[in-house]
Amino acid sequence: MKLRLLLVLIAASCVFTGFSQVLYQEIPLEKRIKQSAFAVEGKVISKESFWDKNHKLIYTSNTIEVYKVFKGNISRNRINIITTGGQVGNRGLHVSDQADLGIEQTGVFLLNTYSRSENLPSQYSTDIFDLSLGQLAIVSYDIFTATAQDMFGQYGSIKNNLYPRIESASGTAYTTIEEKNFDVPPIMPDMPAITNFSPTTVRAGAILDPTNNVLTINGTDFGTATGLAAVLFDDPNDGTNGSFTVVPYNSLYIVSWSATQVVVKVPSRAGTGLVGIRDDLGAFSFAGTNLNVEFSVFDGTHPSVPPPSGGAYQLKLMDTDGLGGYTIRYSTNTAGSGTDFNASSEKAAFERALDTWKKTTGFNITVGATTTNQTVDYDGINTIMWDNTNTGNALLAYPTLGICYSWSSACTDGNWMLIDFDIVFFKDGLSTGGSVNFNAGPCAASGALGQIDFETVALHELGHAHTFGHIIDGFAASNPAKVMHFAASVGANRRSPDVSSYTAGLYALTASAQSYGTCTTLPPDPPVPTTEMTPLSTFVPSNDNCPASFPGTTTATGAHPITLFYSTSNKNVDPSSTQIVCSGSAGVYNTVHFPIRTDASGGDLGMTIANYTTIADYSSCGNTGVRMAVYQLSACPGGSSFPAPIYCNSFLANGAITSLTGLAANTNYLIVFDGVANSKVSFDFVLSGTALPVSLQGFDAQRTDKQKVKLSWVTASEVNVKEFEVQRSSDKINYTVAAVVASKSQGRITTTLQEYELTDVNPSRSNSYYRLKIIDIDGKSQFSEIRNVKGSGEQGRFRLRTISYTGLYQVFADDYTGSIQYEVYDSKGAMLQKNIVQNGQNIDIRALSKGNYFIRFSDAKGNLLDTHHVAVIQ
After folding, report:
1. Which of 58, 783, 794, 799 fits a 20 to 30 Å CA distance from 35?
2. At residue 440, what are phi and psi to the nearest 5 degrees?
3. Residue 693 DSSP SS3
4. pLDDT at 9 over 70
5. CA distance 230 to 10
6. What Å distances lie between residue 522 and 51, 55, 314, 381, 857, CA to CA?
7. pTM (2 d.p.)
8. Sign of CA dihedral 474, 18, 10, 169
């Protein structure tokens, strides 16, 4: 399928630049023009990276061929835009807020005079500018449809719509420097046609995972690997169909090129969206379906990279501090209008974000002693700070919320590593271009108050420190964007990883087989590490995703621990945002899944929350808690295929939840819990009611002599239990009440083991059958299993004394001498244990799983002597 020819092109290269998370709040083009000293139309024709005079920072000079001047006094046909970041030799600097201008990029650039030329070598210090608002300073051209667009939307015709709008905002007519006609699309020769591509989902930048990174594109008329031939990807730094990343035919990302097939390594600067081929004559078209990018990790190209990567590389995390990873330090320096980060209220939010990464992906970061450092450079000090005038770089400009400066290096083996990073956050009142109202938490950010959630921004910037690039997966149906989406919105709370960033983290921390050779440095540069990061232990709950299989046996009543502390969200397997509540929509933040199965009778399900605990103090917060939805399911449908829930509720403290009534017998249900606005909560989900069996463990009845029967039982948890009726029968049909025992919980909720004992002094002389009736304070009741005790005339040869309900018993033999052989069987009759004991010795079955068992006693010839029911409680 041949689609329309598109747009603006950004060459993928080895240059380390990118974008940080920006505030997704539309700034009209007119306002952006007024905030800029210059507005020019042009195209990027070349670029070159270099060190500053002090060998502290790497910059890139982007040469622009100027066509029109809309604002400001520029008469030259060549100017240079300076961006921070780039690659020189075996050192690279990735700056997460900088626009990575690419060869051929065409459009309108909003500029200011570069104000730090004194830091630059003389050959780069004249006729220089910088982008006034980062990515927002670029309006991209689709020269093949003669239209323009930026991250906020489409402007339509370049000549008829965009030009008049810019002239109106600047208050003057434009000046032509070099005539270029963008009035109508150019006439193109026959276009290439893409038949298909594989795989349809890729991992951008994951050079060490060729199965999921290398893309094969099949079709016709691809031309030869010469001239203008290139592969085109949607750029993830400005949204779907914004601008495009170009991988030229001679790039080290290209594996092979023929007229019918192109094989390419997908670079970090590729996002979910269109993928296209441009032939050697400049004609290009796009595939009929989008390429899906699962996640992005930092990569680059360098001719010294060894096989099998061969020219392209993936940046690896390292052990730089001897503790397995990186040590960060908070800057306390207030010089240069700085602020002590260690004393700021946002520090707690930053550490919650850091704790999230450490406990979910194993990101090995240690918080070290504070520092007075304010300089952004490769110095071995991973500094976390507020914006100030001493960083060595320009102040942050609105709407940039934070910047992560990531330094990379390669040694003699040619493999590249992350060696240092600094993070700088927007400081309201100092950083330029606007105002940011950060919410320090732990309460959720409020859209009505215009708040930007600092923990959300910190999670994103630490994602860049993780070596994550941006992806395209933004706001939909009230959901917050994914962690590594390029923009955050007012009032959004994304404090837990989504499946993209979580998977990226696990991948980034996977040990590789790479070696790094010998690394030599000169003072004052710190030593370069050669050992990869050691991941920390992780705490993502096992029920984070919808399970592959549902229970085939009845779910037990009692307490079931649930934690949302380090759970994630996964739109592929979680209910969609409109299905996590009974009506309307709500964001899906951090979910866990709890499947249950009812018993043979079905009925009501009582639900109580106990031991409700939060990871931070939410007591003063309004929009917190847990949302739960119940679905009648026996398999996971995934995402929007979930049916409507049969029940929905929310809670934010201990207490009973409205009972769920009318559950079908022998039926599976799925309960999904989600933290409201990313609330991180743990609790015991205590189940009761007729739809599930009683929460009883270890009910036992044993004759102690001819006139007494000892009854004992244990509850694993109690919910509103008033009392226990001990009922006796001689025929297993008609029961009478032998005794009533008050509940130790006295009608309250307990989630710890409670032990009970009772002696029946009036048992039947024939066989006696015992059961427990468990009575709730509201009058509801359930029965236990039945236990049989032999009559006094048929008393067994053996007695068992319970030493521990975890599965330790002592055996006593009546009128029997010699060795005793015993066999332990489960409820299905499978023998699990066999041994020989003497009178008075212990039988230990604590290694068995929790449940009920019976022990068969026999003599040395295998003749049955006695049997006993026992239980293991863990």
Report:
1. 58
2. -80, -15
3. coil
4. no
5. 11
6. 16, 12, 25, 16, 79
7. 0.80
8. positive
